[in-house]
Amino acid sequence: MAEGDTTTLERPFYEAARGEADHPHSLVARFGADAPLPLDAGGMLSPFQIAYQTYGTLNAARSNAILLCHALSGDQHAANVHPVTGKPGWWETLVGPGKPIDTDRFFVIASNVLGGCLGTTGPSSTNPATGRPYGLDLPVVTIRDMVRAQSMLVDHLGIQRLLAVVGGSMGGMQVLQWAASYPERVFAAMPIATAARHSAQNIAFHEVGRQAVMADPDWRAGRYLVEGTSPRRGLAVARMAAHITYMSDSSLHRKFGRRLQDRDGHTFSFDADFQVESYLRHQGEAFVDRFDANSYLYVTRAMDYFDLAADYGGVLAHAFKGSRTRFCLVSFTSDWLFTTADSRAVVHALNAAGAQVSFAEIDSDKGHDAFLLEEPEFSAITRGFIDAAARAVGVA
Amino acid sequence: MSPRDIAIHDLTMKEAARAASGKRVDLLLIADMVAPGSRVLDVGSGDGELLELLATTRGCDARGIELSREGVNAGVARGLAIIQGDADLDLADYPDGAFDYVILSQTIQATRRPKWVLEQMLRVGRRAIVSFPNFGFWRLRLDLLVNGRMPSSDNLPYSWHDTPNIHFCTIRDFVDLVGEVDAKIERATALNASGHPVRVNLPWAVWNLLGEQAVFLLSRKD
User: Fold this and answer.
1) What's the pTM value of the predicted model, to 2 decimals?
2) Do A286 and A173 reside in the same domain of the chain?
3) ipTM, two decimals
4) Which InterPro entries did the record assign (chain B) (predicted)?
């Protein structure tokens, strides 16, 4: 962590620092010169690759595929042990044999987003033009670019129509974009704890995170991989600030209150006296071991730029005009990052478009993170919605 | 008024009046008023029983609004499109003429703004169907006359101070409200205590005495 730690490494020292970027511990779909990815920022990305995992078996009719879309700090390891952290997949509460998204019945696909750092092309991937990591030379990507890339992966897997596209937070933005861009390819859509546009408050939080990264002298204007440094402190602070927004006041209070960390009284210093401080420091530290700082900039930026209505003349309902996709939106009472009002705005637009839509607000004090945690009512409604969709298309 | 209260009330009504088929009589009556293949919004859809009835027997595109999370979960699990929401607020979110029918079954007496709700129903739908317990039913009148207390019954089991039903009306009161919102009564049926329709060729005053509940099909005048 201290400056100069990496100066003793042999070139190219960034190989080790980039972890999973080029050769991830997962499946990889590579798209060459014949399949360039058009980007909203202009130009084409080529070649590029998508790292993904699948669970379960695709049926003969190719009708049982469910695509999972991950959130800001997620990846393709939704339901398997994570190759870097050794922890369970991020959605094992919901995805697995016999679970609401049942891998005994469905072919579940989870891919790392464009701009990510777990094997899909992102700023830590090798730029084929230079042989070095892209860094900030990678064009800024959008949610729509991410979804366009995912649609190429779904093509690559030989799947015409997805039984369902499911995701929370930024994953929910991707679900909405899927339904708007490829309505005929999405039978059922489940956007969870999300919004059709990123709010000013959310952009503000992201900006704090990005400034923390960029204020770290080890960031080196984004060239840290080439220069052999790592903006660990900046990224850790970004993660600490963001983590607060994922929890509710009451869940922080329940978990930590004002309890002290391994001490009997205040130390009258700036050490981590309180458990909540110690917890946040740990969250920050753990994050930098698995996430690339530039990816954090790119992916937060993609969320900031997301405003689905803007692509449809400012009228969100137009994004879903004539849609035959069935929707189920879910929000959580204590989520103040993506509120029930955000979900209701989408429901309103879907109603105006005449789309088939269900909506449930789940009572939870766990804040935005509730969608990743054990929430029985959320599990039940997910199971019901997915099962009903499967019945409707004749998936056993 | 809590979501759960409405759900409980709904169950009580359900058990009170079931046809041989096991369906609520008022729901069968309502379904009978709906033209096949139409677009329907059921406000206070409970666990989705009417929506399913309309979808399976009338080929309708049927959607619901329901306050209780349990009701929404049960309906979504049956493959129905149900939005968790409050009739008193969320009807405003629907565009004009989005549905052929908007249905309010055994719920109007639990709304805070019955007149506003009825107006919204007739804005959002070309027709509105309303079923409600008739407070003019002879047994309730007798109960008040003899006992001098707020009436309660199997269908209306709540005490006056702890009830989701804050806006009771009689059939005649409802007919007045229909006039106030300038709607047209296309059909009306009253059900007696055993769930059978009261004979149609009797005046309102008699319906108001004999009907334990009533079902009205309304349309806009224009």
Assistant:
1) 0.90
2) no
3) 0.81
4) Methionine_synth_MetW (IPR010743), SAM-dependent_MTases_sf (IPR029063)
